[in-house]
Design a protein that fits this description.
single chain, alpha+beta, Ubiquitin-like (UB roll), 5 strands
């Protein structure tokens, strides 16, 4: 049996200090130790992307990262995308555009799409397809997923263009 090692990370804004086995994968820390089951385990080989989340602002497949490698990191999971009860524009677009069927790949798709939109706020259809090519969906033909990402990109750009008003006291 391996000795446990300390890991400190911030997940969706909450700091956690845990003792973990050195071989524990980040996906299992997130799901089994922290109870954030929106991050899915699909293949354990990094092929499907269902386990995609953000580590220090970058999309990663958490089945390829040891929990100890995330020590000191800031992690965002699908549960951290919404703002309270308000869904993130990507979540809304996947819902509205029927970009999901069984929903198993959806959290990973949304996390990969959020990474893409952070780097490219106005992607073409080809750029969206390229940005999502590490995520597999076995139910859809991807057309509605691409449409959802395109629509969310428009919503995010429109929200950024809105002037921020501050109340003068």
């Amino acid at each position: 049996m391996s000795a446990s090692v300390p890991v400190r990370l911030t997940v969706n804004g909450t700091e956690h200090e845990l003792q973990v086995e050195p071989r524990l994968l980040l996906v299992h820390l997130i799901r089994d130790r922290l109870g954030l089951t929106g991050t899915h385990v699909g293949c354990d080989t990094s092929n499907c992307g269902a386990c995609t989340l953000h580590v220090d602002g970058e999309a990663v497949k958490s089945c390829t990262v040891l929990a100890v490698q995330a020590d000191g990191a800031t992690v965002k999971t699908i549960e951290g995308m919404a703002n309270g009860d308000a869904l993130h524009p990507l979540q809304e677009a996947f819902w509205n555009d029927h970009g999901l069927q069984c929903g198993y790949c959806t959290p990973g798709m949304i996390m990969a799409a959020a990474d893409l939109l952070a780097r490219n706020p106005d992607p073409s259809e080809d750029e969206i397809r390229h940005g999502l090519e590490g995520n597999l969906c076995r139910c859809t033909g991807y057309q509605n997923i691409v449409k959802a990402v395109k629509d969310a990109a428009g919503e995010l750009r429109a929200a950024q263009a809105q002037p921020v008003t501050q109340e003068v006291v």
